[in-house]
Amino acid sequence: MSYDENNVFAQILRGELPAHIVAEDDLSVAFMDAMPQSPGHTLVIPKEQAKDIFSISQVVLQHVILQTQRVARAVDQAFNPAGVMIVQLNRVGAGQSVFHLHFHIIPRWKGLDMKFHARTFEDTNVLAKHAKCIKGALDKN
Ligand code: DGP
User: Fold this and answer.
1) DSSP code string of 61-81
2) d(Cα 57, Cα 98) in Å, to the nearest integer?
3) pTM
4) What residues does ligand 1 touch, defined as CB less than 6 Å away?
5) What does the pLDDT look like over 40-95, one tens digit per residue?
6) With contact defined as beta carbons under 8 Å apart, do 31 and 42 qualify?
7) 39 membership: H or E segment, kind and range
8) What pLDDT digit, counting tens, does each position of 85-136 carry?
């Protein structure tokens, strides 16, 4: 399967779809997952067109991983969870549903089960509030 330029993350990168962006640089963008599995669920994506981890350039992958660490640190500080899960899915067989490489940052709390993957859209006001908290933490780092 080749890269589909009309996938939702490609549309977000082109500014054709709205997103609650928390960080952006030359090579990557981080924004709130619209269907969060827990409060603070954030995605980090490369600007390079790559459908999965196998098709990204090494240079950009290194950058995106470092950016994932940076954003995850801010999510950790903003939400103070018991733990932080970093997840990355490749191909339908692993559950991937958007075919533009992305890393999930998912805060976890004891006693709070994760919601189903890519199932229910969160209220946009809630996402905006969470994005603001993460941006605030990023500004302090
Ligand atoms: P994956 O299944 O690993 O490809 O995860 C895709 C994630 O993307 C899933 O958690 C839901 C999220 N998602 C799907 N559509 C949109 C969208 O239009 N905007 C945002 N921000 N997230 C989306």
Assistant:
1) HHHHHHHHHHHHHHHHHHH--
2) 19
3) 0.97
4) 8, 17, 19, 31-35, 89, 95-98, 117-118
5) 999 999 999 999 999 999 999 999 999 999 999 999 999 999 999 999 999 999 99
6) yes
7) none
8) 999 999 999 999 999 999 999 999 998 888 988 889 999 999 999 999 999 9
Q: How far is the CA of 64 from the centre of ligand 1 (A)?
A: 17
Strands (DSSP E) contained in 79-128 are: 83-87, 103-108
Where b means 16+ CB within 10 Å and e means fewer, 109-129 reads eeeeeebeeeeeebeeeebee
Among candidates 86, 94, 95, which has minimal Cα distance to 44? 86
According to DSSP, the residues that pair with 44 across neighbouring strands are: 30, 103
d(CA 72, CA 75): 5
